[in-house]
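Quick one: co-fold with 5'-O-[(L-methionyl)-sulphamoyl]adenosine.
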Amino acid sequence: MEKNTKKTFYITTPIYYVNDVPHIGHAYTTIIADTLARFQKLAGKDVFFMTGTDEHGQKIEKAAAERGLTPKALADSVVGRAQDLWRSLDISHDFFIRTTMDFHEKGVQKLFQMLVDKGDIYKGEYKGWYCVSDENFLPDDVPLEAEGCKTCPDCGKKAYGVSEETYFFRLSAYQDKLLTLYAEHPEFVRPQSRLNEVTSFVRGGLKDLSITRTTVKWGVPVPGDPKHTIYVWFDALHNYVTGIGYDWNPELFKKFWPADIHLVGKDILRFHAVYWPAFLMAEGFPLPRTVYGHGWWLKDDTKMSKSKGNVLDPQAILKVFGPDPLRYFLLREIPIGQDGNFSHEGFLHRVNSDLANDLGNLVQRTLTMIRNYFDGGIIDPEEETAADLKVRTDFEDLKTRVFDHYDACALNKALEEIWAYIGQVNKYLAANEPWIMAKDPARRPRLARVLLQAAAAIRGISYLVFPVMPGSAEKIWGFLGEGKKPSEVPYEEIEFDGFGPGRKVGMPQALFPRVALKDFLGEEAAAPETPPAPRPEPTKEGKEAMDIITYDEFKRMDLRVAHILAAERLPGATKILKLQVDIGTEKRQMVAGIAETYTPEELVGKKLIVIVNLKPAVIRGIESQAMLLAAITPDNKALIPFFDRDIAAGAVVK
Ligand code: MSP
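Sure, here it is.
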């Protein structure tokens, strides 16, 4: 695809209907647009990002009547809540357009008149079927049902018959021009699969489009013929030109039009990839570069939509997690063109594993070690070894690849690559064991190098995730003692060496909350994790029998010192950790309920007591081949007794 070399970048979302507040599906479109806008700013472009609301038409007229409100009063109340939601999601739009704004209505009327004068709009009679939910005329080939009605093939709702005087737009005259556009500029519709759909739709033949209604009052009046209101899609699509200054700010319009990306859901691709360019051709405007049709978020395999009643309210998630986990999840989980099923379990898994464990822990432990071992900043690092150099050069390569992915709207790929690098830096730290080096003053220059490398990598990683998780990236740069925000550094200037020796770091705060499924969904909705082994209340006789055992009985327990070689969390489990231990004679794996008291990182290298001849148990599908000894605190947390001096793995405990 030809590279977009323009200095400006204009990106839009669809403008959302105001029949209700936006849900996760709408949030998805807006988050993609925000991420692309933030990236293009880092890439040095002068960006204009617009979103807004579609307030006219029969759908809103009907929703308002059902609530006993005027359409404008309904719109005003929903707009306030939509704007609150975009604020809570850290959406950084430059302008919020409402189709009830005066300049928009005037612009639409002016363009309508221009097309009448040109002969591209003419008066006639329309007979057909209309779907209020989609604000769309049904294609002629939709069959008439036994009861004499028709069902909308897109949303499954009942359509109603219309027979009225109308103004038509001469869409049929643009069929060949549209086909030439798709052939000469395949980037006009993305992804490729959608271009094929649109092309075959247009090849199938285009009929002129009814663009006014006499039976709908809530709309922009047709100039000189006010018993007609302008069809809501003709009105709404023009927000993309009126919002950027058409007819009221020629400089702004000249600077940013045509749009670089109109981001839309696949349900409204036809309006944007067929009607919209045809209107623009008729009006003599340059055409947008790309209409990007993204997939849907489904709940239980059905498209999330207000009318189906299966929508998820993003505010419920935002209250617990803040914006970044939701932004990350929606963008990481699926490529933009595909559909995805939203599940709370999937969301929590990503947050706990990718954010809290992989990124959160990397930041937390690196900064804690820098503060503990080099309070005044890292000094005198030794020369880079090959492994240290690899952390640096891999970042440089990553930076280029991530740039290309963002530029190509492959946001999930950008995140996948960044997370692979986070995994690499975590492994680098584990392999170097800085917490052990710290005990040996002779190894200080090496310790300095390892922590310097990790901090520089964290700075780079945060920069690369900034478009997706702006708040977290800014926080991490703050912890790193960085004077600037990521948004103030152009992409081409970001370097691994941005974090150098002597930089004092701040106290890291927890970045991502670790939340259990039951706390998120409520006890009943969440399946229990590993059920705690029931402790029977001892009977009087049992108690006596348990109290007194013989030494021979005690001796049957093979208790030994074990050295923890590795520790990790298990996906979706908040209480248990998986450990690899050395028991002197062999290595064993075990699963222990200690995740609420210890992080995996602090356990590695420690020695503790385990019983090794207990029958293995299977916990969460993993065989636990030993059990550790721990004291239980009053609030049911496990506290492990560690040794106060070093002792070899395998030493007998008796
Ligand atoms: N008002 C029109 C758009 C006019 S643009 C000139 C409209 N509004 S809408 O409120 O129904 O929202 C449309 C957009 O919301 C969809 O195109 C899509 O971008 C997004 N989504 C709504 N539900 C969705 C999902 N379940 N999943 C992903 N996005 C979906 O159509």
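If it helps, The longest strand covers residues 158-169.
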